[in-house]
Design brief:
The protein is mainly alpha-helical. The protein has a single domain, classed as MFS general substrate transporter like domains (Growth Hormone, Chain: A). Helix content is about 75%, strand content about 0%. Strands 1-2-3 form a three-stranded antiparallel beta sheet, with no helix packed on it. Strand 1 and strand 2 form a beta hairpin. The longest helix has about 35 residues. The protein is globular, with a radius of gyration of 21 Å. InterPro entries: MFS, MFS_dom, MFS_Na/Anion_cotransporter, MFS_trans_sf. One of its GO terms (molecular function) is transmembrane transporter activity. It is found in: Membrane.
């Protein structure tokens, strides 16, 4: 088993996968940013817009477990390039797919199928689901589980949680990029320009990924057969994960390193607590993610798109980058893994809930923008909480469990 233990290799993996998550989310947020312009051009009503925006998650959610299993079985380094190339190409050709859909006479069916397929390819996004849940292709459901599997295989136990949290924070940088540049492109050149810009940017990242994989030799399937590697992982595991007869235990969940212990996981309340936290937080986040551009455009028509498409996402960029290091600081101060995750996730969920209760009382643009920005900032703390839990209690099956 190849193990990425040097600082240089760790940084290369971090930068490459961080960039990949950024372009992935730039692709994903492109349609919500363009939704108002597309709805005007194709005469969509609210039902049409909601259906096209939401059907992405139908395929996204249906393929999570399969995608994670594929990544663990064949290696994320083999699955990621294939799934990425598909959604990148379909992102670039999204305008043509929309035109074809209306030329075919069956626009809604064609668009729904395209969006469902897109969710599969990008699947289990940063805010997606543990067991949950653009004209790209639903092959994006393989993206995040593949990266989770790669991090689990190529980084030491001490680095996994922090690095994966930083990588996931790339999603919000991609959203800021698409929101800022995209707002200008949509205003000056039309909505089609945004998809082509993101498509070209994603192709450049794909070339970098291919270059890194070919240089490091990580493309071949990897297995946890190396005794030295397995021993190192067990030795590096934190104190509240003692080794017991070849198994790893955290918070009472005992996991064998040979096969995914679904029965043990399904029977333990800690696993379901994490799953519910992931689902509820993800539901709130994706509601804001998909509908904030349309909400601000319709409620405050004089507001600048570049402001409301960027400011809330800047707040979550900051907290999502800080969260992994804050969690590490709590661990180093003597807090247990379980308590650390509870603190980070608890503050995140409660903070988002309070903001969403407050926002209906706002009646002007600036207060609404500030409340939604605070909600997004609270969501960023999730990257030091449940978001990285699969690396804690299933280090050898991160892709499948994250799915």
């Amino acid at each position: 088993m190849v193990s990425c233990r040097s600082g240089t290799e760790s940084r290369i993996w971090t930068v490459t996968l961080f960039s990949g998550t950024s372009v992935l989310y730039a692709s994903r947020v492109a349609l919500p940013i363009c939704a108002a312009a597309i709805a005007k051009e194709f005469d969509w009503n609210k039902t049409d817009s909601g259906t096209v925006l939401s059907c992405f998650f139908w395929g996204y959610a249906l393929t999570q477990l399969i995608a994670g299993g594929f990544a663990d079985a064949f290696g994320g380094e083999n699955v990621l390039p294939i799934s990425s190339l598909v959604w990148i190409v379909l992102t670039f050709f999204t305008p043509q797919l929309f035109d074809f859909a209306y030329w075919s006479g069956l626009p809604l069916i064609v668009l729904l199928l395209t969006r469902i397929l897109t969710g599969i390819g990008q699947g289990n996004g940063v805010e997606g689901g543990f067991m949950s849940a653009n004209a790209n292709f639903n092959l994006s459901a393989f993206h995040i589980p593949s990266m989770a599997s790669m991090v689990s295989r190529h980084l030491t136990a001490a680095d996994k949680g922090r690095v994966f949290g930083v990588i996931l924070a790339g999603s919000h940088c991609g959203t800021v990029l698409a929101g800022s540049v995209g707002s200008i492109l949509v205003e000056k050149y039309g909505w089609r320009a945004l998809f082509q810009f993101v498509g070209v940017l994603s192709l450049l990242w794909y070339w970098c990924l291919h270059f890194v994989l070919s240089r490091s030799g990580y493309r071949q399937p990897l297995t946890p057969s190396s005794t030295e590697s397995a021993d190192l992982d067990k030795k590096d595991l934190l104190k509240d994960r003692p080794e017991q007869n070849g198994h790893i235990s955290i918070s009472g969940i005992t996991i064998a390193s040979s096969a995914v212990p679904w029965r043990a996981l399904f029977r333990h309340p800690a696993f379901w607590a994490a799953a519910v936290a992931q689902y509820t937080g993800g539901n709130a986040y994706f509601t804001m993610f998909n509908w904030l551009p349309s909400y601000f455009h319709e409620t405050f028509p004089k507001a600048q798109g570049i402001v409301y498409n960027v400011v809330p996402n800047l707040s979550i960029v900051f907290t999502s980058m800080v969260a992994p290091f804050l969690a590490t600081r709590l661990l180093n101060s003597g807090k247990s893994m379980t308590l650390t995750r509870k603190i980070m996730e608890g503050v995140s969920l409660v903070g988002v809930a309070i903001c969403l209760f407050v926002v209906p009382g706002t009646s002007s643009f600036v207060p609404a923008l500030l409340v939604f920005s605070l909600a997004m900032a609270c969501r960023g703390l999730h990257h030091g909480g449940v978001s990285v839990n699969p690396h804690d209690f299933a280090p050898h099956h991160t892709g499948a469990v994250f799915g």
